Amino acid sequence: MLRSMIFMNSRRSKMTSENKQPAFSFLCLVAAPRLVERAIKLLEEAHVPIQYQSHAQGTASSEMMDMLGLGSVDKMVLISMMPKGFAGKMLMKLKRELHLGRTNSGIAFTISLTGSNAAIVKLIERLQPEGSDSLMERKRDSMKENEYSMIMAFVDQGCSEELMSAARSAGATGGTVFHSRRVGHEDTLRFWGVTIQAEREIVIILAPKEDKVPIMKAINETCGVRSEAHGVVVSLPVDSVAGLNDYE
User: Fold this and answer.
1) Of 49, 36, 37, which is closest to residue 83 (Cα–Cα)?
2) Average pLDDT of adjacent 10-residue blocks, the chain of 248 residues
3) Alpha helices for the chain (secondary structure H)
4) Treating both helix axes as pointing N-terminal to C-terminal, what angle do 134-143 and 84-98 enclose, rounded to 10 degrees?
5) Taking Cα atoms as reference points, which of 45, 128, 43, 117 lies closest to residue 78?
6) Model pTM score
């Protein structure tokens, strides 16, 4: 009986400790370089310690780019990590300060994180608003239905246009392309009977939840792992979006 009570108290203590841990999010901005530079200053003013930026290219047609406010093809991607409640406030601040949703602006979105190394957690949890209840935030987020998904496709270099053509046929409006290099042992790929170029392209597409499956299916049928593009496609739920047909 005593052992059982000790086990239950230990388990309850562990659950309480887990509930006290703040929830974190990635805040991602895809925009013209001039707007990303302004966003970096806004994040620095808010004392956000971690920021990563990368060059990218837009893939939408000129008509659709004008509609979504994505202007030129040249893009920058800014990614930062922060507590979830703080990320929601920063998302709205970026939308307001950068006029996301207007012509030649961009889009921003947040994605929930399930874990990080302890040093990073200690660094960014200082941004957690005092008095916030991370458990209540998690419960509220679990009840909230995600309206958008982020589709990520990895294809051989030069295949992103073919991929976007397939994606548009299923409802995608545009995407963002990163250039990358595959790492891994060639023997592993040969074991599975797959040959993949070292130089790869990563295509990111934001899509309404009802379009996610048709878009992924179209990409897989045209640029799947057995095709010349050797494509791999995955998706992640997006918590919130600013600048995608929602300017106020």
Assistant:
1) 49
2) 52 47 82 91 88 79 49 77 89 93 85 74 69 49 66 90 93 86 57 59 91 94 90 90 67
3) 2-20, 33-45, 62-68, 84-98, 118-124, 134-143, 160-169, 186-191, 209-223
4) 70
5) 43
6) 0.71
